[in-house]
Write a sequence for this structure.
């Protein structure tokens, strides 16, 4: 059992029953020319989450713990894209339109891929999802239950959209979630802070919030104890 500092109180987990969730670290959200920028956003605000997430990813890989990457996107024929999602906000470019990184948020296009720093390796789950909630219209819950996972360490973008929606959905399914504040990011700093505060408020009504440094320290300390 590992215990790591977190709000509103320490988070306890076993690596063997925990999955690292890397939510939508796709070029379309994080790099210029993608879907995020087409909505009028400054994508540089998300890039700060990449390096801390890579360190956590390395630790999970070193320990043989489960890693799940999600990608938001749609079938090339857009048959799974509701008009409500396509047309919301009347953007300059819509999902499925051609952008500098191929068709926006379409599976198979360059922009839909995960950024190279966090690219999945063999044996890791890559989960394509049409919505913000990673449980909606996917087999995520079946994958977690089949693997005996009870706890999630959550990273990804954006904090108040796909991360928040997914963590709330996970919480309702009985999963214990630790959201890493420096491994998540938003186009809106105030929404990032508010979403994190909402998770941990009311005694952890949605989950826990911690940092990658505290988590990595806790994992390293547990390794030392085991060796001693
Ligand atoms: N726009 C925005 O903040 N986010 C999304 O559209 N998707 C995710 O958060 N992945």
């Amino acid at each position: 059992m590992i215990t790591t500092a977190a709000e509103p109180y320490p988070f306890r987990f076993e690596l063997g029953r925990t999955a690292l969730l890397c939510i939508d670290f796709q070029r379309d959200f994080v790099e210029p020319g993608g879907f995020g920028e087409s909505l009028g956003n400054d994508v540089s605000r998300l890039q700060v989450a990449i390096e801390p997430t890579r360190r956590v990813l390395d630790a999970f890989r070193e320990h043989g713990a489960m890693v799940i990457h999600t990608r938001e996107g749609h079938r090339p024929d857009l048959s799974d894209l509701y008009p409500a999602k396509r047309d919301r906000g009347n953007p300059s470019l819509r999902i499925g339109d051609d952008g500098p990184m191929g068709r926006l948020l379409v599976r198979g296009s360059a922009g839909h891929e995960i950024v190279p720093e966090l690219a999945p390796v063999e044996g890791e789950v890559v989960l394509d999802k049409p919505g913000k909630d990673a449980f909606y219209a996917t087999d995520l819950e079946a994958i977690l239950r089949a693997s005996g996972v009870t706890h999630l360490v959550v990273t990804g973008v954006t904090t108040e959209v796909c991360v928040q929606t997914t963590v709330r959905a996970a919480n309702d399914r009985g999963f214990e979630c630790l959201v890493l504040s420096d491994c998540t990011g938003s186009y809106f700093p105030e929404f990032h802070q508010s979403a994190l505060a909402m998770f941990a408020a009311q005694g952890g009504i949605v989950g826990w919030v911690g940092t990658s440094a505290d988590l990595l320290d806790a994992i390293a300390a547990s390794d030392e104890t085991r060796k001693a």
Observations:
- The first helix runs from residue 27 to 30.
